[in-house]
Amino acid sequence: MNRSVNCFKRKVMLSLLFSITCGIIMAQIPVTGIVRVAGTGTPIAAAEIRVQNKKISTVTDEKGQFKLSVPSSKDVLLVKAYDFNSTEVPVRGRTELVIELNSDVFTPLFKDIFSLNGILPMSALTASEKAISSSGQRPVLTADDLIASTLSGDVRGISHSGAFNQGSSLFIRGLNSLNSNAQPLFIVDGVVWESMYGNQSIQSGFFDNTLESLDLNDIENISVIKDGTSIYGSKASNGVVLINTKHSTSTVTKINVNVLGGVVSQPGSVPMMKGEEFRIFTNDLFSSIGLPNNTVSEKGYLQSTYNPNGLPEDQLTLLGFMETDPTKVLYNTYHNETNWNNEVYRGGTNNSYMLNVMGGDDNAAYYFSLGYTANKGVVKTTDLSRINTRFNADLKLLSNFDMNMFIGFAQTERSMQDDGMDFYTSPTWLSKIKSPIVSPFTYTKAGNRTLDYADADVFDIGNPTAILANSLNSTQTLRFNFGVEPIYRINSELTLRTRFNYDLYKDNERRFVPMGGTALRYIEGKGYSENQVSSQAIRNQNIFDETRLTYVNSLDESNHLKTTYGFRYINNTLESAYVTEHNTKSDISKFVTGSFDFLQVYGVNNSTKSLSHFLQAEYDYQGRYFLTATASMDASSRFGNDTEGGIQLFGRSWALFPSINAGWIVSSEEFMNDVDAINFWKIRAGYGVTGNDDIKDYDAMAYFSSVRFMDKANGLIISNLENSKLQWETTAKANIGTDINLNNDQITLSFDVFSSLTSNMLTLKNAPEITGLGQYWNNGGSMTNKGYEFSVDAKALNLKHLKWEFGVNVGHYKNEVTELPNGSYPTSVYGGEVLTAVGQPAGSFYGYKSLGVLSTALQASTAYTNVETGAKGYLRLKNSDGTYSKFNAGDILFYDRDQNGIINDKDKNVIGDPNPKLYGGFKSIISVDRLSLNAQFNFSYGNQVYNYSRNLLESGKDLSNQTLAMLNRWTGDGQVTSQPRAAWGDPMGNSRFSDRWIEDGSYLRLKTLTLSYDVPIKSSYIEGIRIWASADNLLTFTNYLGLDPEFSAGNSVYMQGIDAGFVPQTQTYTIGIKLNL
Amino acid sequence: MKKISYILLLLVFASFMLIGCDGMLKVDSDRDVFVDDYGLKSTNDSLYSIFGVLSQVEKLADSYVLLGELRGDLMDVTSKAGPYLKEINNFNISADNPYVNKKDYYAIINNCNYIIKNADTTLLKNNEKVMYKVLAAAKGIRAWTYMQLALNFKTVIYYEEPLLTLKDAEKSFPVYDLEQLADVLIKDIEPYKDYTKPSFGSLYTADISDCFFPIRFILGDLYLWTGQYENAANEYRDLIFKERYLITASYQSSLTVVNKVFNGGSELYWGSCFLTSSSENITNIIASNEYSDVFMLDSLVKDYQLTASPFILNDWDSSRYMNSATLDTLCDLRKRQSVMSNMEVGSTYFMGGASTLLTKNYLSKFIYMNLPSSVTKKVMPYRVALLYLRYAEAVNRLGKTHLAMAVLKNGLNPTIYNGVIIPVSEISIPMPNYMNFTNSRFTYNIGIRARSLFHPELDDRFVIPATLDSVAKISYMEDLICNELALETAFEGNRFHDLMRFAIRRDSTDYLAAKVAAKHPNNPNIQTILSDRNNWYLK
């Protein structure tokens, strides 16, 4: 943007000269005024005043006074001054003006920002758009995290996990798709950024975040555009995020150095049972299946495979860990108090170094940057390093021919450990469920501890310490892009430009699950796995070209029109290869060879091509009335050839996406003359249709897939039917909004109401049986989002030295599924279920309702009342063999919704909604001269979350260690408690997915607190030094029982509000220095 | 004017972009093959498509055996059996039972249809129209699959076009029962009965040509089901003759005799019928033993989820082993290689072992089809003994009861036409084709029972009572055949349909119901359920 602003400035200078010579001739209404500092009233000299859209301008004198003649009383003056935020002042027939400018410490309100078709003054926007300008001093690493923390009321952003660089799930204005991508479209330097949301890491709990290759220091600005996005038609239904990287802003060479370092605190743990508590718990567990609870064997080994349905019958008496005699050999093995949390976690560190240089001359300007980031993760042995470089150049080749270049490269390497609740391989999860009585190390027969890692213990739970030491999990990601943009100005009105980009993304992952330290795993249909090696390689190549022909015409002084026709072509090729095999015989062989057990190979080679034609007209009347009309026409290789929506042309189906947005600056009207308190008031309205083309490649076509026959030969089978009707999802959005600035920009209000309807949603349907195929994707069903966004920003204090800006930013949406072609359906997620049903919000938790624990045998025997006969009896459960089991004292009393006395699927109901009632944030910026304190709070209110970790840690069904909550478990008749009894295998399903695990996920979090100081230094070498310190996640207020109320188990709509036990976000303390040379 | 020319230029350009778009949007893949690129124009293409079909046939292996046997009277579930196995055993099958899935059958049919419609039959290789073999193989697989579908589900939806588009798949197609289907299929495959199997070599040790279903066998079965016994007998006989399928002493088991007394020892060779290299193979459904998880049968057996019914155990135990006219005992050696008592999980040694103290009866027959040392595993829908028994069933219904008996007892060799084994009354002149086993290639044929009962021809109790009238003789002999099918082919997957065929032929629902109900002494409902013929079919 700076490049363009620069260009813009030059134009201003030209027009200034021009106005001095000829402005006076055109003058009709003389206007005088003063420009001064808001708050203090000090006059501002050399402020520039320009009449919008007209070549008339002037500057203030030393007293801040100016004199100007404007052609019309309806004109708007643009006022700019160095160190101050610009403003726009409507003349409204006045002849004497007092104009107050606010320090640029405050958030600017009238700057030029990037929109979908170039740069616009904020006041001319017709769509709902928010922007973040460049930021140097943040410990966050990726653009999505920055959006999540800064625009928290405009975008509902949720960090995936506390692991470094994992990114966030972003939802703009609700949930706009069920089965397709619901994440916004990223446009980086004008190029559609391939999100690769479909890629899955082979490490559990990790996400491919392609934005990680963009260094925040390279980003000039980010704009979030919520409606009026039809120019990106079939890709824009989830909103658009525009990101622009830096270009040289001046011909003077500038060098910028950023260095930061920080520490990340070690995650805590929910309070878990201590050794003796655990031992008593296991006694309870064993007695629940009628086992003698103190059977001790010299062998001391429970050779069971982990089997929640019961211990193998012949191996029940070998409970060496019950040994109480310290003289016995096994005593020491089972009398430890290991703090498994400390075995797995540690404090982490972050370091980042960044250098950028910009400069050039009038014909060639360049921006170059080099950055290095290193992180030591809070999980032992995990780390990350990234090296990134960028080169952007702007060349003026001819007087009417420019060429811009964009080159970016980033390489990230990380070592990781499986995260989340993987029973076999995740050290973080094992650290929770592993009993404290065992040690990470083995014991000799004499009872002495060795330094050898212990294998999985007697409870068949792996040893996280050994896994950390023996596993080998790593990822190497590389992203390279090369882009050029030739711009040919045909004449003063017509410009032809094309943006070409080549993008290459490569990801190589390897994973090794050791046998030392992991529990033996049975793989259904295959056999036992001792260890496992896997590797995955992904290669994505994207060729992008967008050509725009722009026609700018001022029909007369009042009417301005900008028309753009363009077409966009995207050709994406995704290749991936995944190999996994088991039982390499030894932990020394950690590489895939293709010769071990259960070899499994999978790969894709997908190509997607899409083509779009678009037309946009932006019309502006007197800087007061704005109208933007856009239409695009999209075709894609993913669409069928005979779709019901859109039009048919040249043998293809084309989707049509129109939108219209209008803006009216009410404050520029003469009838607002007397309302001085309102210095700016705009009303916006828009309606547009966009789409979602995130259909699986080739789904509309018939194809054959390769299958293995006899593990040796390849065969081909029909795998997909041609569904020529398969099409994009359609989202129609309506928006009405208003922006009001009060009291010379002291208070800024913005309010938007929106409503959207997504139809033709992708849904799975069963293929006709006779085809022999499974399910296929089809369009049908609809969903609405209705909501509002509100923000207020106030300059609470505006003194000479002390300035305080405070802002609140709140969003709300209500999602509702309104139509489903095949009726409602549940989706299994992490041991729970979400329901998709008409009338319910997407992602609703669907499970049983619990009414406490049956305290007494009498209560249990009368828990059910037959509605017809009035007879009382037990509530029962139907077993898989057709018999019934009774819910006894100590079991959960589940709500028998259909009152048939049997607790089954029909008793399930919606038990929670992961969608918040309100989300957003507060910000506070206090600056005292050179010192500034910036606080950013985020909150979510009224959302429910499913605490899956707690579900397992309070299930009382196996030999996993449990939380202290389980100390209150029911143990005897008459005990009133909320925790049911411990029961091996949980035969009554007390720990089933029920409202016991649904919690209020509301929270308020001090996301970042930054203190920065501009060192007063004036030297010919150093232009400025800023030192800063920042703390992340310093405070969190929540009732949530888990470690961190902010988590996202995935980008899918179905995955929201599910705590899958990933590494929690912890406090991070960072200090940094920024040098301008 | 200049502006207008620019705009015109732009319009021309835009329309070029629109028209050119079809090519610009055409996509390709190295992993998937699109219809346009896949024309079956070469033998390689046909290889891929046949292997594709065979990979789909693999999916039927488990359900073929489990639906065929658990619903019958020979195989039973244990308490360790999973709920889906119990459901099949109890004729109470839930909608999500993975062993009951019509789609698996139609997937084979649809893929076969594609081959049949697209095979380039003009293709010559070594001056031979190679594609006819592929065509015949595809038609055979398709017909067998349709037959299974009709036998299991009563009716089928019949179509001959490959369904590649949703539009095509939503068309309405005729629904046929077995009678109607047989008519259509017989017409469809009859012209292909003389084509040999395509030769695709071997994968591991498995000969791929053993994966195809001989057209004559299917024709024979279709004729048998529809009461066209002479046609059936002719097809079976011609298949035996042309392919030289023989029952000889090579797989004969025997008890060791020392000093004219059984000494407890035995030499067991009958189980070798089930090995990959056996000459008993006609059609195998094969899978790799290495990485594949398509067959679960061996795991089910090893987990002891499946066992043998008391009826079949007793049936074996009450067969009469004839060492000589004077030395005999009650013992069928097929039992020792069909079930075993103490098979350890993962054990590599299973041959031999005592059979007297049976507590757990593992179905060891499957272990022969899936040797731990072998890289392939299989089930055998068609094998030589079954072919002979089907032949016996057909000729018995033609009134040739003694010829049928000879199949079991004496062997189909040139010596049987001596007026004793086959009475003169049964030998018509000229001898019908289906009776003709006079060729010298049949010289060493022995009776099916002779492979496990040594000299059944000496058994004076195993005869057709002369007192019976001709109708009763047929019925008597058919019972013997039905029982021999149990003794010989227990657990192989054909039992329930065999019982169905006999019951339908005799119009005696009870023939099936009573036999199966005997397996369920504690569940009287089974007899009631099976008294309704509709319940013989899966929903």
Instruction: Note the total helix count of chain A.
Output: 8
* Class based on secondary structure composition and strand pairing of chain B: mainly alpha
Query: What does the largest sheet of chain B look like?
Result: 2 strands, antiparallel
Oligomer: heterodimer
Percent of residues in β-strands of chain B: 5-15%
| pLDDT averaged over residues of chain B | 88
Broad structural category of chain A: mainly beta
Structure description:
The complex is a heterodimer of chains A (1077) and B (539). Chain A is mainly β and 1077 residues long. Chain A is built from eight helices and 60 strands. Chain B is built from 22 helices and 15 strands. Chain B has 539 residues and is mostly helical. In chain B, β7 and β8 (206-207) form a beta hairpin. Chain B has helices spanning 2-19, 21-24, 43-57, 60-70, 83-89, 102-118, 130-153, 166-169, 178-189, 215-225, 229-243, 297-302, 310-317, 334-338, 365-369, 384-397, 401-408, 450-453, 470-489, 495-506, 509-517, 525-530, and strands spanning 32-34, 75-77, 124-125, 128-129, 155-157, 175-177, 202-203, 206-207, 254-258, 261-267, 281-288, 306-308, 320-322, 328-330, 376-383.
Main attributes of the structure:
heterodimer; A: 1077 residues; mainly beta; 22-stranded antiparallel barrel; 5-stranded mixed beta sheet; 8 helices; 47% strand; disordered N terminus; B: 539 residues; mainly alpha; two-stranded antiparallel sheet; 15 strands; 11% strand
